[in-house]
User: What shape does this take?
Amino acid sequence: MLTDTRDLVSVTEASRAFSRLTQEVADGRTVVVLKNNEPAMAMVPMDVVEGLTKVGERESDVRLLALALARTFTDDGVRYDLDSVLAEAGVTQED
Assistant: This one.
């Protein structure tokens, strides 16, 4: 993520100008808050948060799709019942 140095503010500055910064963020600006000259957090517009949430959901969907495709391509047609699998592991359904 490229950040304009004008969007970097110290914790102290963010504290002093919180109301102004929240309005600017609501208007679309992203602000990176520095603690000890290191990025500690970001103030971002809600549409950015919603976009990140959607990306996370799609990532989960892609992982499930990849698993389904891998299973499809590697399926040898042999099926095992639960009792056989448990017996191989040395346990029963009651365990």
Observations:
- Residues 5-44 form one domain.
- The chain is about 55% helix and 15% strand.
